Fold each of these.
Amino acid sequence: MTEGMKKLLIPVAVILVCAIILTAASAGLAGTAASNAETELNEMISYLLPGGGEFEEIEYNGADSKITNVYKGEGGYVLAMTTNGYVDEIKLLVAVDNDGVVKGYTVRDIHDTYGLGLGVQDDLYFLVGLMNSKGDLAVNSNIDAVTGATISSSAVVACVNAASKFVQEAGAAGVLTGTADGFMGPITVSVTMDGDKIAAVEVVSNSETPEIAGAALEQIPAAIVAANSADVDIVSGATYTSNGIINAVKNAISGTSPEPEPEATPEPTQAAQTAAEAYQGFGLSNTVRMGPGSDDTGTPVYSINQVFANTLFDSEGRIVAIYVDQLEYATPNYDGAEMPHFSGWPGQGGYNNDSNHDAVVDGTTPDTEEQFTEEVAGWVTKRDRGETYVMGTGTWSEQMDAFQKLFVGKTVDEVEEWFAKYCSDANGRPLKESSSGEGDAEKYAALTDEEKAMLADITSSATMSLNDSHGDILSAIRASFDNMVPVDLTLG
C-alpha cells in the first residue's frame, strides 16, 4: 500500500489523536532529565489514556517478561513494557481501555538506527495502525511495518498485542478484592490473577472464630488456586466460612455477589453436628446443701446452688467458648458475709437470722411479703459478688475463668474424663501432692510427671471443686451440650 493510499484511508480524527499523543510524548521525553521521573511518567500516562482518572501501580506476577509495570485507572490500564529491537531494548508504554482496546502508545527509550528503527517512535501511520486494535495485529498482514524497521516494528506490535490480551484476560487487574458474608461477619479476600489463571488467594480480613473456621481459612484458598476455580468442596464443620471465602472470590473475579444456597437447619443432636458450624447451649444444674451444720440454737442451715453454663460448641462438639456462673443462697442463719438469703415463703414465720455474722442468732427475719421480695431482689451470682468471694487461691470468678480456659477445645466427654482422672473422688477438687481425701494419694501417684506438672499449673489458679455440695458445674456443662441448638446469625 502506498503512503498516499494510507493517508486517504485514515480518518482525520484518528490522525489528530495520534498527533496529540506523539507531540505530548516528545514534550514529556524532552523534559525528563530536568524533571522528576515519576511526575513525567504520570503525565505520559494521562496523555496516553485521557479520562482514565487517577492511576495507581498494581503488582504484576504474570509470566510475560515484556510487561514490567502495570498502572490501573478507572478508564483502563497503561502497561510499561520492554522488548528487543533491532539494535537494543525498546521501552514503551501502551494504553488499553477496560475492554482491551488499544488507545495509545509511546516509546520511552530506543537506540535503533536513525531513520530506520527509530521510526517506530514517531511514525504517525504506524501509530494509527496500532490504535483501536485488540491484540490481533500481525506485521505485513493488517499493519505495515515502519519502512526499514521490520524487526523493531514486529517487536512493538508484539508488545501492543500482549498488552491488549493481558487486559482482556483480566490479568491486568492484578490483585482483585472481593467480599462476602461468612459465619461471624464479612470475609474479604484478595485474588491475584495471571491472565485467566488464579495465581493466589488470600483472606485479608474476617471475624471468624479460629477454633471453628481455621481449617477453612487455610484450606479453601489453597484449594481454589489448585483447581483454578472457586467451585471447590467446603471444609467439613466450617460450611458458612467455606462458602464465605468461595463467594468472596467469585465476587472479586466477576464483581457480583453470588447468593448462597439455602441450608437445612440441623437438629441439635450429636449426630447432626456436622451440618452446622456452631451450636450454643445453656445448661442449669440445681443442688441443695444441707448445712453447713446448724446455728447456735440447733436450727439447721440450708443453701441452694444453681450453676449456669452458656457454651458455644463447634461442629464436632468441642467447646469453643464457655461462660459459667453460679447463684448460691442460704437461710439467714448462715454466718458468712455477702451470702444471699432466703427465709422461706411469707406466712411461714420467718427464719433464724444471724445479722452480724458472728455465729450467734439475733432473732428471726420478718414474716412479710416485703422481706420475701427484698431477699429475692438482692440475690447476686458468685461472679457478681466479685472480690468479696475470696477463696484459697484468688476469687471464685478467677478460679472459674481458669477452668473455662482449660475446657476450651475439649468435648464434654473429654471434660468429664479429665475430671474423673485428675480430680479427687472425695471432694471433686483437682489433685495436688498434698491432697488428703480418701484414695487421693494413690490416684495422684499413678500420674506421670507431665500430668503432675499440668495439675500443678492448674492448681496454682484453680482449686475449687467441679462437683460437690457447693454446686455441680460438670452437670451444668453437660446440660448445655444436651440443650444446644444451631447458631443462626441470619438477620431480618
Note: The longest strand covers residues 278-294.
Amino acid sequence: MIFTSRYSNPELRSGKYTAVRISLGTPKWKLGYNLDAEMPDLMPFGLLHKFDLYEDFERAYFARLDQKGVQRILSQLQRFESLGKDVVLLCYEDIRKGPDDWCHRRTFADWWQQRTGEVIPELYDPTPDHSKPRQAPSKRSLETPPTTYQMEQFALF
C-alpha cells in the first residue's frame, strides 16, 4: 500500500514503512527512522512559492506529472513496494491544520486518483493536532453563562 505523510509523523518510527522523500530538501533534524529512497519525479522543482493560488500550482504540477506519466511513476512505486513494506511518500507540511495548509504530496495523491482511480491515503498520525482544542467545552459551560462579579475599588490611603 502507498501512503503520504509528513516527516514528523511518529508512526514512521515503527519501522513498518519504506520512507520515500518527495520534498525538495531533506530534514535537518533527527527523524528516528531512515529515509530509504527519494523520488525526484514527484518533487515540485521550481513550483513552490511561484503561484499565489493553489489552483495555479495544481495545474502546473499536474502538467508536470502528466509529462512523467502514470506508467513511469507506477514502476518507481512498484520498485519501492517490492521491498516488502508499505510505502510512504514524505514531505514537511502538517495538513491537519486546515485547507490553507495544503501540500504537494496530497496534490500528487489527487492526480494519482484522477488518473488511475486508486486512492493514496494520508498515513495515520498519532500526534495531537494542536489546531484543535484539547478537550471540548464542558456541558455545564455551554448551559450556564459565565458569572461576572462587579469589582468595587477601595482606596488604600
Note: The longest helix spans residues 54-68.
Amino acid sequence: MHDGRKWTYREENEKDKTQNRWVKGRVSVSLCPGCLRTKRGEVEGVVTLRGSFLKAHAMEIGNLIRRTAARVSRRNVGARIIREIQDDDGIVIQTTDQHLAEKIGKEVEKAFKGSLRIMWQEQDRFVRVIWERN
C-alpha cells in the first residue's frame, strides 16, 4: 500500500486494521516497486553461494538469507528475492536490488566466514556476489 509518502506491506490478515489506520482517500493499493520488478524479471543482483560447507549447512544458510531479505525489505520494499536456484554446484539467488545482494553476501560471510567477492558493474545497476567455502 502507498499512503502518499511511503510503501508498506498489507498482510491479508490485517485488512481491517489497515483500513482503520489510514485516512480514507489517501491510500492507494497497487503493486509496489519490488513487486513490479519481480513481475518484469528485473534482476539487479546475483548471489552465488558454493562449496562443500554450503552443502553441509544449507538449512542454516537458507534461514540467514531469508532473515536478511526480510530485514532489508522492511526498510526498502523494492528489495526482494526474485528467484533462488539450487543445483549440485550451489545456490544462485537473483534479487531486485543490488544492495540486497551485497547484504546477503556480507551476512553469509560474517556468519560463516569463507571467501567473498563483490563485483559491481559500472554502467548498469548490477552487482554479482560470490561466496565460497570448502
Note: The beta strands are 45-50, 81-86, 90-95, 115-121, 126-132.
